[in-house]
Amino acid sequence: MTGLSRRRRLAAVAVIALAAVAGSACSSSSDGGADGGAHLVWDPYPQFADDSEWVALLKKCGTSAGVTVERTGYDTTDLTNKALLAAQQGNSPDVLIVDNPVISTLAEAGALTTTDDNKLDVSAMEKNLLGAGQSDGKTYGVPIGANTLALYYNKDLLTAAGVDPAAVKDWPSLTAALTKVKAKGKKGITFSAIGTEEGSFQFLPWFWGSGAHLTSLDSPQAVSALTLWTDWLKQGHAPNSVINNTQTTSWQEFATGDYAFAENGTWQLANAEKLGFSYGTIAIPASAGGPAPAPTGGEFVSIPVQKNTGRYEASQKLVACLTNADNLLTTDTTLSYVAPVAAVQERQASADPKLKVWVEAVRAAKGRTGDNLGTKYPKISESLWTAVQSALSGGKSPQEALTAAQTAATTR
Prior knowledge:
Blueprint: H1 3-21, E1 39-43, H2 53-65, E2 69-73, H3 76-88, E3 95-99, H4 102-108, H5 115-118, H6 127-130, E4 134-135, E5 138-139, E6 142-143, E7 149-154, H7 155-161, H8 171-183, E8 187-190, H9 197-209, H10 220-234, H11 247-255, E9 259-265, H12 269-272, E10 279-282, E11 299-302, H13 312-322, H14 325-335, H15 342-351, H16 356-364, H17 377-392, H18 398-411
Parallel strand pairs: 1-2, 1-3, 8-9
Antiparallel strand pairs: 3-11, 4-5, 6-11, 7-9, 7-10
C-alpha cells in the first residue's frame, strides 16, 4: 500500500473513530509518542495497576529487549479509537494489545504490520485462534489468550431432576433435561440475548452449532437455531428476561440457585467458586452432537506501523517475550484465559482439572471475524442480534426475522 493510499484509508476509518470518541484527544509525539526513547505499549487492561504482575512482566520483557517500557491501559472501546487516531497521526505505540475483532479494522486501515513484516513466529499458535487476526491470507498479530462460552450447571438441581449432565450431548438431550427440571418446579436455562454484541456472542454457538454460516443468516440451519431459543421461551424453559440480559445479569440469575443451566464464560470462574451450590461445566452442544463452535474472546499482541522502522527489532523481541510459553501461562492464568498454544493448554488443564472443559471449548471455537469476514462482521452481528430480539419478543417468526437480517446485512 502506498503512503498516500494508507493515509486516505486511515483518514476514512478515523472519521468514524472521531465520532465515537466524542472529542477525546490522543497523545502527541511531544508527550512520549513512538518517536521518543521509551517503547510504548497500549493494552485493554486498565484494571492492572503499576505494581501488578502484568506490568512487571511488561517491564521484564522490555529489559530483555533492551528498551524501557512505558505502558498505558485503556478501556477496550477507547483503545480502538485512540489506536486509529494515533495511526492517522503517525504516532502509534510500538506494541498494541487489542480485542481480537478489532484486528481486522486496524489491518484494513493499514495501521498494523504483518507477521511476515515483523518476523513474529506464530507457528505454535492454534490455527482457530490465529484466524481472528488474519485477513486476506495475512496475519497481523499473536493471540495472547482466549476465552469463550460453555454451559455452567447446578449439580443439585440436576440431581434432583434425575439429569446426568454427561448425557447432555445435543439439542434434544439438552431440551429433555430442561423439561425434567421444569417438571420439578425449577427453571431451565438463562443466557444473554440483549440487542448488542453480547447477544450475538451468546447466540453464535447455537447458530454455528446448527451448521449455519454468517454469510447466510436465513439458512434453514440458522432458522433452527433461533427456533430453539424461541421455543425455550414459549415452553418456559428460559425466562423472558433473557431479551434484556447482559452476561452479568444472566450470571446473577444463575447465582440465585433457581436455574439448572447458564451460558457464560471463563471470566465467571472466580465467581463460580463463590456460588452457594455445587456447579459443573459442559461444552455447549451442537445440534447433532459434539461441542458447538463458540466465539473466541481475548486479545492479540500486534506491532503497529512506525515511521522509524528501526524500532521494529526491539518490538519483535518484546512481543516474543510476552507470548513465549512460560509467560503465556502466567498471563493467561491472571486473565482467566485459555492459552493459544496446545502445550500450554495441557499445562493449564493439568494444574486445574476444571479448565479441561474450557480447553476443549476453546479448541472448537471460532473467531468472529474469521472466514475472511473482517470488517463485514459488525454489520452482520447487528443484523443477527436484531433478528434474535425480534423473534424472542414475538415480533416476527424466526424465519421472518432472519430473512430481514440477511437483507439488512447485505445492503447496509
